[in-house]
C-alpha cells in the first residue's frame, strides 16, 4: 500500500481537485494523442462548446485501434467502427488537428496554460494533396511499414493507412531520397498532379493557449525480444499479437489471408502464449496484468478459425488465469470453447524450433503435472501493454506524476485527474485497459477538463453563417452537373468530356462542366458562382466518393443559397476509373450511367429542413449512489440544474456498505462528503423515496412523471440505478448462507470492517469462496469486482490478525490491471489459493455449529478439509429488480443478464441507443469505484454535449409516414432500433419522432403498405435510379 | 359427418342467438347457404331471428377473420382520423373460428387490427374443408346440383348423375397438410376436439418443386399464373391483406404495372406471397376465392416452410412470440450470404 | 339473308377456308378452365354447354390496350411526342360464341359508340355464334333481355340440328364469309321452319317488353338506392374484381403511361368499381370509400343507371359472376330484391 | 423453356448493387483506393443500410432488366444502425428462396456482407458474381418489355 499514497481529499471530501483558476478561463483544451481516447475526448469537448487542439505525433490519427482487425466481444471490424469518428474529428470546425506534432512544454496553470508545440514537416501540402496515391506509386524507395509492424512495406512517401485522417500523404524524411540527398530523386514532385510536394517544408514551433489539458498518450505493446525463451526475433513464426492483428486484417500485409511469416503458408496450428510481458516481475519487470490480452487472444483464435473456414485449424491458448471480466466476455469465452478453441492452464517455459519447416515446439507442464511437447506452425505472443517511453518522458516534462509501473498516477476517487491541476489523463496511459474503458475515461476526462472552463463555453468556438436559402419548390428542375477529372485520376481512364456532353442531354440538366479538381478551393468558389448565375436548383457532382466529399459540396450549395439536400454525387473515381483501369470505354459508359442515375435521383430531391430540437437545460439523474451523485454534481457544477431521483430514503446507495477501494482509500469519508455536496448544491433538486412513473418525449424534450406527483421537463437523463449483491438464500450455492451467523457475502464483511468489529481479530481461519454462483449457467457473467474485493478483504483481515489462516477457493483470479498488485501481496502474505472447477465445487456443511469446507486441491489431487470460523462468499453483483421498470419507462434495452445495453459495446459505452439517455455505474455492469466514477463523469460529459446547446441538430433524412396509407400494424415500430416510430395513441397510426429517427430506413423496407418512406431516399427515387441504370441497355 | 355438421349448425345457431339476444354481441359472423350448392355465403346476423340462416358445412371456406377488422370498425361510432377512440367498451362481434382462422385472428391482434376483448369466438375444430374445384372436376363438366357430406364421404349429384367419393379425395390441399385444426383462441368450443393430425410430408409438393431445375420451376410458375385476371380475389379473401392501399394499386410509387402483363402479374404474385411471409396460416382462402383456379397457395406455402426451417417460426400459435420479420436472431442462418461470417455457404469463401 | 344447312365436313371446309386469310378463335379447354384461344381450323369443337370462364370483351376491349406510343429517350428525335400504334389489321373470326356473349358486344357498343379503338376491333371481327341447347342453372339470359336462341350481335348463327347445323347468315360480313362457297347448301323450308319454332320456344314470352329493365327504369332512384338489403350484400362481399373482370358487359377502365428503357406507351386497362381506388380523387377524398357504396354502385349501374341511359340492362345473364363469386353474391337475387321494392 | 444463354460475345451482364453507406459502399471505395480491379458491369446504388432494401426494390431492378442483383451490408454486429442488417438478413433469406422457387436463377440474386476494410473482398465478390451471372446468360424472366 505504501507505493500508493491515498489521494488527499479536499476540504469538502469529494476528491475533486478544486480550482484556484482565474474567473475568466480559456475556452479551449489541448488533447495530446490522437488514438481513440484522444479522439473521443476531442469530439466530446468540441461538441460541448470548447475549442480543441488535438496533437498527434504521427501523420494521422487513429492510434492503435486503427491497426486492429476485429474487436471483442462483438467481432466488430475495428476500422469500420472507428473510421466515422476519425472523419468527424478531422472535419470538425472546432477541432484543430495537428499531426506530426509534439508537446514540448506546458506553462501556466489551470484555466490558463500555454503549450509549446513542435510541428514536424509533412513535406506535402495538405491543402493541395488529393490523396490520389500517384506519388507513392512512383516513389522508388520501399521501406518497412510500421503500421504493419514491419511485416509489410510502404514507400518513403506514404499514407499511414487507407482510411487515414487527414487523408494526406506524408514524406518520411529518414527514408526520402531527395530529403537525404537533394536533387537525387524528386519523382513524387514530378508526378503529383496538384503540385502538393514541398521539399522545403520546415518544422514549426507553435504556442497555444488553453484552459486545460488531456493526456491520451496510449500505450506501447510490450517488446518481447528481451524474453529469450520466446525466441521472438530469432524464430520467424513467433509473432506478437499486434503483428497477428495485421496478419488477420484485410488491409494488412497479406490482405487478410492469414499467412505465417516464414513461408506465407496458412498456419494450421496456432498457439497463443498469455502474459508475455505481464504478471511477470522476474523477466519483464511488469507485475501488473494487462487486462486485455485474454480477450484479444480468444478473439484472435475465433477470428483465425473464421478465416480458415474450417474446424481443422487448431487453436490453443496457454494461460494462467482466464481473465474475461468484462461485459459479455465470459459468454465469448464459453462460445470459443464450444467452438473448439483449446485452453491450457499453464505457463509455457520455452518455445523451441521444431527442427523442420520453421515449425515450433512448445514445452509446458500439463494439468496433470507432466511435461508435454506440442508442435505448432505459428506462435502468437499475447504481449502486454506498457507505457510508451516517449509518452512517459512527455508526462515527466509536463510535471505529471507517474506510478511505479510508469503509468500516469491517478486516484480511486479522481480516476482521470493527474497530480497537476488542469491536466487530465485517459485511456491506457493511466492503466492498461480495453477500448470501452478508454472511451469512457476519454469522455470523463473531457468533463473534468471542461468543468472549470464552463464560463468560457462557446467563447473560442466558431459557428458558420449561411445566406438565406432560395425556395426552389415550385421551380422546374434546373440541374447543374460538374464532372471532375481529378487530375488524371478520372480523366486518364474516363472520357470526361464525353460524360460532360452526355450530361447536358439529360432531362432537367441546364448546365454541365468539366473541372480539373472539383474539390479545389477555386473550383468550389466558382461552383457557388455558377449556381447563382445559372439559377441552378439542383447539383450533381461526378467525382469521388460522397463519403468523404459530400459534406464539402453540400456546404457549397448552402454558400450559394441552395438547400444542401438538393445534391447528389456520382462516384466515378473510387467506384469507376480506379477499378476499371484497363477498360476506358466501359468505364466511360459506366460514368454516364452513374451520372444519369444521379440526375434521375436529384430531380426528385426535396429541400429538407435542418432539423433541430430545442433543449430543456435540465438533466434527470436516476439513482443517488456514487454514480448518480457524481453524474449529478458533474452537471450541476457547470451551472445546469439537475433533478436527482432516488428510490430509497437516503443517498449513497451500494457504496454505503463499502469499506475501502482496491487502492486502499476509505469509502465512507468520501461518501459522506459527496452526499453533503449533493444535499447542499443549489442546482440539485433532490427527490428521495421517489420513482419514475412515465417518460414521454425524446432527446432535448423529455417529460417525466415522478411517483411524488411532480412532472420534470428535462433534456437528458442519466440512469444510474446501481445493482445489488446476490444473496444465495437457497439452492446449490447457498453454502449455509443465512443459516450460519459467520457466513457472509462480501459486503457484509465490509460492514463489519466499517463497524470495526473486534470479533474479526479473533478469527483463526477464514475461507473465501469466489464465484459462488457466478460464471455458472444460471448466472453466466463474471462480476468483475469480486476477486479484487475478496483479496483486499483477506489482506485487511491479515492486517487485523496477521496469524489468521486464510484460504481462497477460486476458479480464475481476475485481479486485472494494477489490481494484480493485491494478488501478489496476498500470496506474499501467505494467503492460500486453491483452485476449483465446476466439476468439483467446494462442499460446505455444518456440524455442531462449526463450518466445514471441503475442496479438491488440483495440485495435490485430493480433497482438502477446512474448518473456518468465518466463510465469505463472493457472490454475483446482480441487476436491480426495478431495472425492468426503468427499461420500459425509458424504452431502453437490457442484455440477457438484465444489465443495461449500451448503444455500442466499444465506442458508445455510456450511451443508450435511444438518444439523450445515458448510463453509469453498476446498472451497466459490475465495476469498482474508480470505474464507476469515471463512467458517471463520462455520462455527465455525454449529457453535457446536449445540455450545452440551445438546440441540437437532428437528422434531416428521416422517415416520414403517409397517414393515408398507414394501417397501424406496428411492424415499423418493431424493427426501429431507436424507438423513433410509434403508433399514435389516438389514431393508432405510425408517427415518426424526427428527433429520434436516424434515417436507416428499416421501417421503410418493413412496411408492406409503403406508408413509410425516407426523405430523399424514397422508393420512387430509388426506382428512378434503377430505371435510369437500365435505360441505355 | 352429416350429423356432425348438422349438430354444429344447430349449436352455432343456438349460441349465436343467445349472444345476440343477450346483447353481448352486436353482430354474429358466420355462413349462410349459397344460391349454388358449391359455394357458401359469409353472413352477418345482426338480430336473433337472422341466426336461423346460419349454417356449417365443408364448403365454408372463406376465412372469417378477413371480415373482422372492417366489421368491428363499422360498429364503432364514426370518428375523424386522429380523434381519440370513444370512452368505454365498444360493441362486440361473435364469430366462428377454426384452427387457421383463429391463428389469423391472433396475428391481427398482434398487428393491432383486432382487439381480443371485442370478439366472442366460437371455436370449431376443422374437419378439413372441401375444394369445389375438385368436386367440379369429379363431375366432369356436368353441373352439380346437390352435395351431401358424410363422415368419410361426399356425394354429388345433378341431372343424370350421382357420384360418391371419399371425403379425403376432395379436401382442399391446405386442409390435407394441416396440422393445427383446433382454434388457438376461443371463448366457447363447438363440437368435438379432432384428434392430433400427423401429416406425413407436409411440404411434399413444395419439395417436389424445389427439386426441379430453375427452368422447370419457371415454366411451372408461368403456367400457374398464366390465366390470372388480376381480380385480386386471392388478396381480398386474405385476412392478412388489409393495407389501405395495396402496392399493386399504388401509383406513387408504382411497383407493379396495372394490367395483365406477365411480368406484372408475376411480381404481383411474388410480392403478395412475400407480404404474407411469416404470417400466412395456410387457410387456403386465396385459392378457394380464385375464379381461375390458380394455386397461389404454393407460393405462401414455400415461405411457410422456410419460416419454419430457418426461423422455427409458426405464425399465430402464440400471441407473445413476435412475427418472424419483426424480429431477428443473432445466429439466423446466412448460408446464402456470400462472405457470411458465421457459416460459409457453398457460394461463399475467401 | 339466307339460311344454310351444313354438315360437319362443310363446317370444316369453311373453317379451313376462313383460316387462310383470317385468325380463328374459339373457346378452348385449358388448365381445366375454358377460355378463348387462337386455334387451327381442325381444332374447333363446339362446346358442349355454357360459356367459357372469361368473356368475349377481351377481343374488343383488350386488357390492356395500347393507345399510343412514344420515345422517352432524351436524345431521340421526337422524344415524348406521342404516335399512334401501328397494328396489323388482320380480320378475325370468333367461333363458338353463345347468344349472351354475342349480345354483350352490342351492349358494349353503346358506351363505346364513339371509341375508335373499340370500333376498329369490332370492324375487323366476325362472330360466328352457336345457339344454346342446354342452359345452365345459373343462366338467365331470357330474364336479362336475351334468349338461348338469340342471334343479336352475330354475323352467322349456327344451330345444332340433326345431321349438322343450320347456319343463319345474318350480316353482310357474314355473307362475305360464305359467299358462293356453299350455294347448294341452302336449307329446306322445313329446316327453316324448324329453326323458327326453336326460336319461338326459347323466347318463352320474356322479351324485353315488360322485362326487368323496363320495370326498374320506372322505379324511383332513391327508393332503390336506400333499400335495406345492400348492407347484407356488402357484409359478404370481399370487394374483389372477379365479377367485373369476368363480366362481359363491365367496361370500366383506367389509363396510364408506362415507360421502360426509354420506350413509352399509354395503355388503357380494365378497372373495377369494386376497388376503392376506382373513385379516389387526387385530393384523397373518396366518394365511394365504403364497401357498401361500391357494391351498390355496381348493381345500380348494371340494372338502373345503364338502362336509364341506354335502354337495356348492362347484363346479358351469362351467370359468370354467380358461378365465380367466391362469396356467392347472386345478381338474380339482387334483381329480385330490387324488383320487389314498390 | 428459355433459349440457352446467348452465345453473343458482345453481351455483358448488367448488375445493380444496393450497398449500405457505412460498410459495403465504403468497402467499394476502398477497393478503388487500393486499385483492386473488377469488371465494369456493376452499377451501385447507395442506401443508408441493407435494412433499407426491400423486396420491391429487388424485383423492380429485375423488372427493369438487371441481369443480376447484389445487396451488401455490414457484417452482423457491425451495423451502423444497430440491427438493420439482421432484419435484412431474414427478409433476404426468404426472398432469395422464394425467387429461386419460382424459377429465377440463383446466380442472379446475391447477398453479401462486406465491411469497410474489405476492399479486396469487394473486388473479388464483384468479379465472382459477374462471372456467375455470365454463366446463366441474359435475364429473361421477370423482365418487363413494352413495344
How would you portray this structure in words?
The complex is a heterotetramer of chains A (1033), B (350), C (342) and D (147). With 1033 residues, chain A is of the alpha/beta class. Chain A is built from 25 helices and 52 strands. In chain A, helix 10 packs across helix 22 (929-947) and helix 19 (786-800) runs parallel beside helix 20. Chain A is globular. The termini of chain A are far apart. Chain B has 350 residues and is of the alpha/beta class. Chain B folds into 2 domains: 2-80 and 90-190, no CATH class; 204-326, no CATH class. In chain B, strands 1, 2, 3, 4, 5 and 9 form a 6-stranded mixed sheet that branches. In chain B, strands 6-7-8 form a 3-stranded antiparallel sheet. Residues 341-350 of chain B have low confidence and may be disordered. Chain C folds into 2 domains: 3-205, no CATH class; 213-339, no CATH class. Chain D has 147 residues and is of the alpha/beta class. Chain D has helices at 24-33, 55-63, 84-101, 119-136; strands at 15-20, 42-47, 68-73, 109-113. Chain D has one domain: Rossmann fold, CATH 3.40.50. The chains are: A alpha/beta (1033), B alpha/beta (350), C alpha/beta (342), D alpha/beta (147). The interface between A and D is large, with 65 and 59 residues.
- Distance from N terminus to C terminus of chain B (CA atoms, Å) equals 62 Å
The CATH topology of chain D is given as: Rossmann fold
Count of helical segments of chain D? Answer: 4
Helix segment count of chain B? 12
pLDDT < 50 runs, ≥5 residues of chain B: 341-350
Can you tell me the number of structural domains of chain B? 2
> What is the gyration radius of chain B calculated from CA atoms?
22 Å
What's the SSE blueprint?
The complex is a heterotetramer of chains A (1033), B (350), C (342) and D (147).
Chain A: E1 28-32, H1 36-47, E2 51-55, E3 70-71, E4 76-77, H2 78-91, E5 95-98, E6 101-109, E7 112-119, H3 134-138, E8 142-145, E9 152-155, E10 157-158, E11 170-171, H4 177-180, H5 187-191, E12 204-210, E13 212-215, E14 220-221, E15 238-240, H6 241-248, E16 269-276, H7 293-308, E17 314-319, H8 329-338, E18 342-345, E19 350-353, E20 360-365, E21 371-376, E22 378-383, E23 385-386, H9 389-397, E24 423-425, H10 435-451, E25 479-484, H11 496-505, E26 509-515, H12 521-534, E27 538-543, H13 546-559, E28 567-571, H14 573-577, H15 584-603, E29 612-614, E30 619-622, H16 626-636, E31 642-645, H17 667-680, E32 684-687, E33 692-698, E34 701-706, E35 711-714, E36 716-719, E37 723-725, E38 743-745, H18 746-754, E39 765-772, H19 786-800, E40 805-810, H20 820-828, E41 832-835, E42 843-847, E43 850-857, E44 862-866, E45 870-875, E46 877-879, H21 883-890, E47 917-919, H22 929-947, E48 951-953, E49 959-961, H23 971-975, E50 981-983, E51 990-992, H24 1002-1006, E52 1012-1014, H25 1019-1030
Parallel strand pairs in A: 1-2, 1-13, 2-5, 13-24, 15-22, 16-17, 16-22, 17-18, 25-26, 25-27, 27-28, 30-31, 30-36, 31-32, 36-47, 38-45, 39-40, 39-45, 40-41
Antiparallel strand pairs in A: 3-4, 6-7, 7-12, 8-9, 10-11, 14-23, 19-20, 20-21, 29-48, 33-34, 34-35, 37-46, 42-43, 43-44, 49-52, 50-51
Helix pairs in contact in A: 1-2, 1-10, 6-7, 7-8, 10-22, 11-15, 12-13, 15-25, 16-17, 16-22, 19-20
Chain B: H1 2-22, E1 27-32, E2 41-45, E3 54-55, H2 68-75, E4 93-97, H3 99-110, E5 119-124, H4 132-139, E6 146-149, E7 153-158, E8 161-166, H5 167-170, H6 173-176, E9 188-190, H7 204-211, H8 214-225, H9 233-236, H10 262-275, H11 285-289, H12 297-311, E10 337-338
Chain D: E1 15-20, H1 24-33, E2 42-47, H2 55-63, E3 68-73, H3 84-101, E4 109-113, H4 119-136
Parallel strand pairs in D: 1-2, 1-3, 3-4
Helix pairs in contact in D: 1-4
